[in-house]
Amino acid sequence: MGVDLASVDVAPPRRRPFRSPLAHIPGDRGWPVVGHTLQALADPKAFVAARAARYGPIYRRHMFGEEGVTLLGPEANELVLFDTARGFSSAGGWGRMLDRLFPRGLMLLDFDEHRLHRRALSVAFKAGPMRAYRVALNRGIAAALDKWGDAPGEMRFYPAIKALTLDLAATAFLGASEVAETETLQRAFIDMVAASIAVVRWPLPGTVMARGVRGREVVAAYFAARVPARRAGAGDDLFSHLCRATYEDGRPLSVADIVNHMSFFMMAAHDTLTSSISSLIYFLARHPEWQERLRDESGRAVGAEGMLDEADLETLIETEMAFKEALRLHPPVPALPRRAVRAIEFRGVSIPAGTVVSIDPLFTHYMREIWDAPERFDPRRFTEVESARRHRFAFVPFGGGAHMCLGLHFAYLQAKCFAWHFLRRYRATLPAGEAPPWRMWPIPKPVDGLPVRLARV
Question: Can you give the pLDDT at residue 96?
Answer without folding.
Answer: 84
